[in-house]
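Example (one chain per record):
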Amino acid sequence: MINALIERWRPKTHTFHFSVGECAVTLEDVAMIRGLPTNGLPVTRPTMSCFEVMEAECLHQFRVAPRKADCRGSFIKLTWFRGLKDRIVLTDDIHIQMYVKCHTMLLFETILFGDKSGAAMLWKFLHLLRNFAGIIQFSWGSACLAHLYRSLCRATRVDCKEMDGPLTLLLTWAWIRLPFLAPIPGNPRLFPIANR
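Predicted structure:
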């Protein structure tokens, strides 16, 4: 009984174990690889699925709201953001800011906080973009690393068939920190992106 309680409350470690030791993705790695701030306010908002609140937030930030068909619970489909981004005419600072917010939401889903579907984004991040000049005050690196850790935990389940999360961060980290996984140098034309 005691062992079961200890096992339940033991903090999870997110390390990779090798014959030479163990290593983990750290905040320093996230700051170095992604260039994201790791100090600042926590990136947190409650996840709500109330369509009316989400509609009001979109109207406030973009002057247009998605239809119910463009939403799925507390998610907004990325096609809505892509369509809105394509329709924005960059005539003044307000429209430029709306365009950048759309692009930022797309980056959140595809790079920082992706899920397995890759088709929708939690709209809770919209509220964090309300004060666009203050976006730098959040610890985006910490949130990205926490999302990676959560994804790694879910990927270890027996019934899990694929992984989500910031996989480009994980792959880049492995490329830099685990040179025995990197391809043998020789022909740089074979791996131009990774060599850059």
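Caption: The two ends are 53 Å apart (CA to CA).
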